[in-house]
């Protein structure tokens, strides 16, 4: 079922999409800098180090969600998200692809995977998201994933911008984003249909809207942390990745 086919509640869907139009992190100046070729290689490395923490926690977030779900059909539908990130015995997942990007920008993948150098604000925001999905009602947990509605456009911009402006960008180093072009729409089609079907009462609709807003703030906070540490004013907090650290 695609989002266009899932409009059991078109008014709510429109309000969810409006949140993305106003709040999604494609509007953050760090992404504008990155996609236009304005980032130095160290700023790109800082982004890779910090975004790793988010990527590594996504399957943990999804496992925490599944542990609370009694409906086996919902668990089956959600399980592919973990496999997309963790991979399977037969294929690599998004986490390994992100480490290939890390290697492409000159970082030691083992250093990145260790989580050293992650900014305190990044860690705080991502941990808050995992905790949110673990503790909030299932409707809020699913709705918080709907930032994927807006992800394909940013991945397309990123692929084009990286290939145009950066020497490290090759098909094998940016494969993470290419794969998400097909994975994210599949995930969000199910998640959107589920939210629209289950958010029937006014307070349930408001819960879904608050959850999606919260997730956009989690994403925005991570980029604010990068901007403050590595762009301007350029104050790297204790424990944050320092240029020259963790290189191959």
Structure description:
By secondary structure, this protein is mainly α. It has a single domain, classed as Up-down Bundle (Heme Oxygenase, Chain A). It is globular and about 50 Å long. The chain starts with 9 loop residues before the first helix and ends in an 18-residue tail after the last helix.
Produce the secondary structure layout.
Layout: H1 10-23, H2 29-35, H3 41-66, H4 72-86, H5 94-104, H6 109-114, H7 120-135, H8 138-143, H9 151-165, H10 175-198, H11 202-230
**Whole-number total of structural domains:** 1
CATH class equals Mainly Alpha
CATH fold-level assignment: Heme Oxygenase, Chain A
Arithmetic mean of pLDDT: 95
- What is the name of the CATH architecture? Up-down Bundle
Q: Note the beta-strand portion.
A: under 5%
For the sheet with most strands, the description reads:
none
Structural class: mainly alpha
Radius of gyration: 18 Å
Number of distinct helices:
11
Which spans have pLDDT < 50 for at least 5 consecutive residues? Answer: 1-6
Quaternary form: single chain
Distance between the termini: 44 Å
What is the ordering of alpha helices and beta strands?
Answer: HHHHHHHHHHH
Catalytic activity: 6-(2-amino-2-carboxyethyl)-7,8-dioxo-1,2,3,4,7,8-hexahydroquinoline-2,4-dicarboxylate + 3 O2 = pyrroloquinoline quinone + 2 H2O2 + 2 H2O + H(+)
Keywords: Oxidoreductase, PQQ biosynthesis
Organism: Pseudogemmobacter faecipullorum
Enzyme class: oxidoreductase
